[in-house]
Amino acid sequence: MLTVNAVAAPSATEPLIRTTIERRDVGPNDVLIEIHYAGICHSDIHTVRGDWGPQHYPLAPGHEIAGVVTEVGSEVTRHKVGDRVGVGCMVGSCRECDSCRRGEEQYCREGNIGTYGAVDRDGTITQGGYTTHVVVAEDFVVRIPDGLSLDVAAPLLCAGITTYSPLRHWNAGTGRKVAVVGLGGLGHMAVKFAHAMGAEVTVLSQSLKKREDGLRLGADHYHATADPETFEKLAGTFDLIINTVSAGIDLNAYLGLLSVDGALVNVGAPPEPLSVNAFSLILARRTFAGSAIGGIAETQEMLDFCGEHGIGPEIEVISADQVNEAYERVLASDVRYRFVIDISTLA
Alpha carbon of 321 to those of 150, 335, 336: distances in Å? Predict the structure, then answer.
């Protein structure tokens, strides 16, 4: 076993603290990664605070991991020592179900193994990227292109792939009108991706306070949803709407913004059920759908796309001692647009 430094939650109600955790020995198909940067996702906060169910503590969160391979198992063929690599939201799956065979491990029928807070194959609880090192099966490690710095690459492993996957699946591109609801950690990546794919992009935000940012990031239009006229003016406009907001919205109002055969896709995860009037769908053959992260192959595709097009998140790099402050700022929407921990400050 390898003992490594970490920032972890001792319980659901206490601040995160510096501590140590144990990593398994490197097996034949494993790689040992020295973590350089770890992004902070809103999911980290929900998980460590028990919002999505009871957890085992201490728990080191973090599923936006970027670093360098320092050791490989005897049967590893995909990675070598010195490679720049990343790990996202999952570190395992059954690998045998239809979804896994299609390369969609995120939809594993048995449930994929989350990077932290999940039960691993050996019965231990997985620990995430707020640590100096991690041991991961090679099949769940992706390559980071040379054109992406590691700090910028880290949030792509969740915020990036969570928005890239539905945009690809629902064919965002030239001639398509795409709206993004919310301009936060997920939303700002959706805007960048949709723009790079060639779509006409609109941001739908509560107010116009981030309008300048939205246009700079690649949006063609920006509208305030607090203005009722927005829903009248844009009725029947969009082919695709990506909703990144993890709070309740009036789905029927947003469905009314779709054209015939349009799709509203949720990537945000509100805690309460959302209500849909069937006629909001029926009268224009509209679709209301959801989307998780991508599989490993699609995550690699996304990283390569970012390297080719020079796409990355807007980040604020912090030290390990600033994690609790960062959590409070995330909850207050006081970040533009993703915090990234410099893991060297944990050494």
Answer: 20, 17, 20
Report all structural domains of the chain as residue ranges with CATH numbers, in order of start. Answer: 2-158+294-346 (3.90.180.10), 162-290 (3.40.50.720)
Chain segment 237-262, per-residue pLDDT in tens: 999 999 999 888 999 999 999 999 99
User: Within 13 Å and on the Cβ side, how many CA atoms surround 318?
Assistant: 21
Q: What are phi and psi of 62, to 5 degrees?
A: 115, 110
Could you give the C-alpha distances from 240 to 119, 142, 234, 275, 288, in angstroms and in order? 36, 29, 13, 19, 10
How many Cβ atoms sit within 10 Å of the Cβ of residue 310?
10
Assess whether the previous peptide bond of 337 is cis (omega < 30° from 0).
yes
User: How many degrees, rounded to 5, is the angle at CA 128 between CA 118 and CA 117?
Assistant: 20
Return the HEC string of the chain.
CEEEEEEEECCCCCCCEEEEEEECCCCCCEEEEEEEEEECCHHHHHHHCCCCCCCCCCECCCCCEEEEEEEECCCCCCCCCCCEEEECCEEECCCCCHHHHCCCHHHCCCCCEECCCCECCCCCECCCCCECEEEEEHHHCEECCCCCCHHHHHHHHCHHHHHHHHHHHCCCCCCCEEEEECCCCCHHHHHHHHHHCCCEEEEEECCCCCHHHHHHHCCCEEEECCCHHHHHHCCCCEEEEEECCCCCCCHHHHHCCEEEEEEEEECCCCCCCCCCCHHHHHCCCCEEEECCCCCHHHHHHHHHHHHHHCCCCCEEEECHHHHHHHHHHHHCCCCCCEEEEEHHHHC
Tell me the whole-structure pTM to 2 decimals: 0.95
> Per residue in 136-145, pLDDT tens?
999 999 999 9
pLDDT tens figures, 180-239? 999 999 999 999 999 999 999 999 999 999 999 999 999 999 999 999 999 999 999 999
